[in-house]
Amino acid sequence: MPQSITRPATLAVAALIAILPLSAVSCSAAQKALDCGNTAIKITGDITDVTNAFNNASNDAAAAGQALQKLKNDLDQLGKNSKNTDVSKAITDLTTQVDKVQQAVNAKQVPDLKPLGDAAGNLTQVCTG
Q: Which end of the chain is more exposed for a tag (fewer CB within 10 A), N or C?
């Protein structure tokens, strides 16, 4: 009788060993998807606000600074809450570009928004790739 119990138990342990790494990958992928979803919702609106603010800067110069600050605050919060290292790195890169745009604004220069858009695209790529 012990042999009949041993064989199913061995098979069950072997199956568990095979399944555990797969479930870890699934949890990691689920966490990444959650991080990306939360990030996308916040950042898409913020980048649209920044772009619109700079397009209308002649009408309301303060709006550009406010939009940048909101984006930076949201990125800081998302970076603190992200559990995925790739997402966190993409958020850090995007934050760096926000800082560069802010420096240009502070120096009363026209900022180059292309690197900001590229960093946002990189975040999208990390989330979908």
A: N
DSSP calls for 1-66: -HHHHHHHHHHHHHHHHHHHHHHHHHHHHHHHHHHHHHHHHHHHHHHHHHHHHHHTTTT-HHHHHH
pLDDT value at residue 129: 67
Find the distance separating the first CA and the last CA of the chain, reported in whole Å. 51
Residue 86 has pLDDT above 80, yes or no: yes
Residue 128: CB partners within 8 Å, gap ≥ 6? Answer: 36
Global confidence as pTM: 0.70
Helices (H) and strands (E) in the chain, counts: 4, 0
